[in-house]
Amino acid sequence: RRHGIPVAYVNQVGGNDDLVFDGRSPIFDATGACVSRGRSFQPDVIVCDLRHTAPIAAPTDLDAESEIWRALVLGTRDYARKCGFERALLGLSGGIDSAFTAAIAVEALGPERVLGVLMPSPYSSRGSIADSLELAANLGIDTVTLPIAEAMQVMERTLDPAFAGLPTDVTEENIQARIRGNLLMALSNKFGSIVLTTGNKSEMATGYCTLYGDMAGGFAVIKDVAKTPVYRLAAWRNAQGAEVIPQRIITRSPSAELRPDQTDQDSLPAYEVLDGILQRYMEDDQSMAEIIAAGFAQADVERVTRLIKINEYKRRQSPVGIRITHRAFGRDWRYPITSKFRA
Length: 343
Description:
alpha/beta, five-stranded parallel β-sheet, three-stranded antiparallel β-sheet, 12 helices, 42% helix
């Protein structure tokens, strides 16, 4: 407007590691009015005659769920394509995270290029297995079932001499996750498929994930999507047409199913509380005092922020994942592993 000249702003389209560029390249006339705009999250060619222009309306595709979904799909598609992977595989646990990640993978790569791997243990519920198979049928993907009970027994016998007299604890839970991680990586090596991990931002923040277990893989699709948005996005995806994620997966209490009757809330605050603290602490740069003043219990704030700090070592070893928020773990988050800072 100051100089009376038109401006064309050309934006990249596509994913590069954790970054996703959304296109929507706009052209402005000499008055500053937007007169043309490219499509979002897909390549486009704009032809604009600057001698004959008229202002156009603002974009209508800016709702959060739609943008996040398309960013995750594009980021996954381009990471696989640019790194030379034609196929992907992931573990299907019957939980919301793996279900949502599978739906993203199918949209990004096509159902014929995605394999769902069921790895039931003695603690896996019949409902989780049935829901995983129903999800796979809805998505049109192939599955393979690799039970881990026998591998668990072998590991138990191998470790018995070293663990003699010690009670069962989280160690045995982590062994189950690592058996599954080994199976997924074996399939990846044999067939040249990329393993998509299914951990979300809430789990990454608090360390509710297992190194070399559920964190093993090549690309972390929902690494920057907290648990509560995962539920919201799953419901949004189901509302776009045929229901692909079974309602039981959405309504069931989240559980790692690594011991009898386990739920996530045995180890973590309710996800609404956890994600609220995470949003304020990580993305809004609020202090603990400010978060407590906003109505969160002091014990919850102290617990969550402590978990964030002491689990940096896990995040440094996690696969790259798509960034959708103001601050994601990775280049946006600089926190030393060895710091004793606790305030």
